[in-house]
Amino acid sequence: MNRMNELARMMKELEDQMMVCMKCGMCQAVCPLFADTGREADVARGKLSLLDGLLHEMFEDPEGVSVRLNKCLLCGSCAANCPSGVNVLEIFIKARAILTGFQGLPPAKKAIFRGMLAHPQLFDKVGEWGAKFQKVFTKPANDVIGTSCARVMSPLIGDRHFRPLADTPFHKQLPELHTAAGASGLKVAFYVGCLADKIFPSLAQATVDVLTHHGVGIFMPPSQACCGIPAVSSGDTDTFRRLVRHNIRQFAAEDFDYLVTSCATCTSTIKEVWPMMTADDDDLNGTVRRMADKTLDIHEFLVSKVGVEAVASSNGDRLVTYHDPCHLKKSLKVFDEPRAILNASRGYRLTEMTESDWCCGMGGSFNVQYYSISSRIGERKRDNIKATGCEVVATGCPACMMQISDALSHAGDRIAVRHPVEIYAESLKS
Amino acid sequence: MASKAIIKEFAAITGEENVLTEPTDLATYAYDAAVLEQVTPSLVVRPMDSEALGKVVRLCNENRLPLTVRGAGTNLSGGTIPRREGVVVLTNGLNRILEINEEDLYARVQPGVVTAKLAAAVEAKGLFYPPDPGSQAVSTLGGNVAENAGGLRGLKYGVTRDYVMGLDFFDVDGELVKTGGRTVKCVSGYNLTGLMVASEGTLGVFNEITLKLIPLPTYRKALMAVFDTMGQASEAVAAIIANRVVPATLEFLDNFTIRAVEAYSHAGLPLDAGAILLVECDGYPGQVDEDTAKVEKICQELGAASIRAAKDAAERDKVWEARRAALSALAKLKPTLVLEDATVPRSKIPAMIRDLEGISKEFDLTIGTFGHAGDGNLHPTILTDRRDTREWERVEAAIEAIFDRALALGGTLSGEHGIGIAKSKFLEKETSAATIVYSRRIKSALDPRNILNPGKIIGGQA
Q: pTM of the predicted model, to two decimals?
């Protein structure tokens, strides 16, 4: 029991934030996981009381709490809907760090995070090798969406329809970029993000094209590392900090007005998780905060800083619907701007789906661990997309793009999955 | 922990995946929204159909296992806090709307249907299910009936009780009992429906509920009136009713709540106002326009400092924003929030508000009050920190004082939150010793082993 006493002491730092929950249960209305399972341990109120249980040494070992805490999409729907403003994501991420520190990181995650993710060049290499060999194991599943699936039964791929690794990742196409501010008078640092680099290089290229079109100077340093969200959401703060430090060093080389990314998850991680999870390190935290203040989602940058506006002729005939990534709408409150970018794209007409801000069910490692639940949540999204009769579904997050691709591909739908910036870039060329 | 043998029997009824036995799962069914001690049950089961529900009840009774039914666990009086050796029966697997009958105006639902889902489903057909408890986005209709939930529309439309036409429920042996029906008139047998509403799971377990629907009002209009004093606002409430206007909602916020809401949402509320009244009339355009004009005139005559009538849906939303934000705004001030619901005859609201101010001073506590002025249902909200044991003692004393004052003014302990565990020891004060004895006789006749949510409402051997 002494160990649990030690854990309770570690949990103490979260007590004040946990006390804010008045157990009203309103999180049940918006939790995508609870909607699927109906279990209290799956919703924020349940998880918060389990953490409270650790604080009061209610359990004989932390494993049960740990498993339930990790069974969460970290979508933040609960926090966005919480009457008393419980800082759910901060509590959960910090509690995961405490529990991982206490129990140790599982060997598989250790190998992936510390052996690979923490070393950006190695991670890039593994990706490149993977791209070469994946065709041996996979075959195309849906040509409109661009998904693949396993050729033979594979425990790793399972039943997934996934967007394969790009033949040439973006960092091979364009290793770095240093252009001066043009007509806009603005210069941005462009943080590419792993998924845009390795799976959606066309998105990274579209981002560069759009910025260049608008006379925005770009600083894109070489050797960018992962933003750290996979590591920190598994409680691996060591790898997380290594990655933050690495990125900070890369981006310190030049001056810029804003740092932009076209990934909702990277943006919210840099803006919110970086400052939150470095608070105990004064030196690092100061730099991180300055960087977080300058960080903007690409749509927000284009609309509020560059002044991109809807065009009258945008009511074209290609019907497009928009899915709100949780990390944009719920974390950063960005939801008008991506729609504005779509309305600025000639040839497209935006139509809203029902529940456009209901989580797609991806949740990063949640999808790996709980694929069947993740898929069922994805099916709900798919049904809502399908009901609009659209030709294209757009969303501002590459992770959501992967999940939605999987859901549509499984249903055999012929609906393309794209990022608003890709659509906008294409309309600039036409 | 429950024995392996009994776990197996439950699993045979509901399927293994619907029986929870892990300590970490059980711990998440130890509470509801009331600020009370948690009690972890020994087992949680989730029947997915009626047949399983009936068998679960019977199995609990055969094994003398206390049974607590749980919908969304949002009640505010501890009605869903289980017993340590007991079983929690979840109803959220029974969540089908069975029928919406547009000719005979009723809906049949399973107990786990979420209130707001039914409301939306009937609204899509131009019909209306008026009871709207604050937790309607998550609360279940089974829970609403078991607690006789209220809401904002009580004054004009009544509460859950007024919409329950009939019930099927399992008695303690798991036998199906039927009461009421689908007709407006029905006098067959004892009015067991009346007995079951607000019985908090102590007399039976709901299987199917038939609810009355009404046509959806086509037009509504809202206004906000600001008063310098609570006395003026209360006079306005009395005058509105005396002038034969019955608004759909008639809500108020006191000065403390106004300041909390303003700090929270910067809605532009006057910080020095003694009270704000929020009024909404609904029905047909002509009548609604006439009624709101009357309300406006009354508020003016009684010295309202300002009146803002909403011209369109967006403005109407703006008017209600302040009321919707009230609980959140108060919740953010201190870690623990105790939401009471002492209710008095509406003419006694000014007296009750004065008493609440006195109680706040006497016990040195922060109390914000808002609520349903139209039906006298006040929500004095005590803001505290449960970890501060000395202040917590004063909170408990203050709650008792609030009950005493409400009763002295001819009111009740609870307008809509239920008695549960939280208020059971005060019930005799409102009723009589004989009432408790009579109620306990009913309970012991219907549930001789005292397994149906024991200890709730009438206390007794806990």
A: 0.95
CA-to-CA distance for A388 and A374, rounded, in angstroms?
A: 22
- Is A385 a domain residue? yes
**Alpha-carbon span A172 to A166, nearest angstrom:** 11
Q: Would you call B74 and A24 a contact, using CB atoms and an 8 Å cutoff? A: yes
Residue of A14, A21, A30, A40 best to disrupt the B interface, most CBs of B under 10 A: A40
- Map A162-229 to HEC letters: ECCCCCCCHHHHCCCEECCCCCCCCEEEECCCHHHHHCCHHHHHHHHHHHHHCCCEEEECCCCCCCCH
Structure confidence by residue, pLDDT tens digits, A277-290: 999 998 899 999 99
Write the residue in A38, A49, A53 that is nearest to B93 by C-beta: A38
Q: What angle do CA A217, A222, A226 make, to 5 degrees?
A: 105
Please tell me whether residues A271 and A323 are part of one structural domain: no
CATH of domain B97-215: 3.30.465.10
**DSSP per residue over B391-441, as a string?**
HHHHHHHHHHHHHHHHHHTT-BS-SSS--TTTTGGGHHHHS-HHHHHHHHH
B44 to chain A: closest CA residue? A39
| Last-in-domain residue among A270, A304, A338 | A304
Provide the domain limits for residue A275: 170-304
Query: Which residue ranges does chain B devote to CATH 3.30.43.10?
Result: 4-90
pLDDT in tens, B161-198: 999 999 999 999 999 999 999 999 999 999 999 999 99
B4-90 fold: 3.30.43
Task: Kindly report the CATH class assigned to B217-331.
Answer: alpha beta
Q: Where a domain ends, among A104, A137, A162?
A: A104
